[in-house]
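Supplementary notes for students who missed Thursday's class. We covered one full example, reproduced here. Read the sequence, then the structure, then the short commentary at the end.
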Amino acid sequence: LWDFTSGSGTVPDADAIASALSHVNYKNISVSDNTVQLLDPNASIDVGAIAKGYTAQLAKEALNKAGLSNGYINAGGNVVLLGEKEDGTNWKIGIQSPDASDALVQYSTKKATCLVTSGDYQRYFTYKNKKYSHIIDPKTGYPANYVRSVTVITKDSGKADALSTTLFCMSVEDGKKYLSTLDYDVQAIWIVDKDNDVSSDLETKDYKIITTDKIKNRVTLVD
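Structure (token representation):
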């Protein structure tokens, strides 16, 4: 229903959105070995939220297996560090400002990891002076607008990609609670507009930046 490819999208009819939402349910997907079946004939699967991260993870594993343990993959918002830098210095990964092409903050680490960012500034359209971004909240059928971007940091790029989309459809508070339920190490960086009432770890004149506790000292503003 939402057209984010033509550049001239319009907001779908509310009744059409409500009808489409009635077919959104992961329980209508049956997976048995390598067979996937849709139990609802009006449902479909879009792997845009995970495909790039999953593919980048496979590329990392293939490169590591071939003996490459230094370098990185940059797949447009999906960054995979293959190993520690040869000179022993930190990797410094920039996270883009939501309203500019420059980096707003940077994350510093020595270890191999993956960073995936979901934001509202790459694919969107403006209709009647209001911006609509491409990540749709499955609870409402409309674009999620809790945050401007969220970056997930964990060892598996596929999981990071899925989680960044998931967290984009949650408030910062709910996102932190959700991450605390996971049984593996995963960290996150949120960027929200300055008028958001959430407590921040860093601020600029336009934005608040919030991080999970474990990486607070690894995230800095870009001069």
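Commentary. The chain has a mean pLDDT of 94. The helical segments are 14-21, 51-65, 157-168, 172-179. If anything here is unclear, bring it to office hours.
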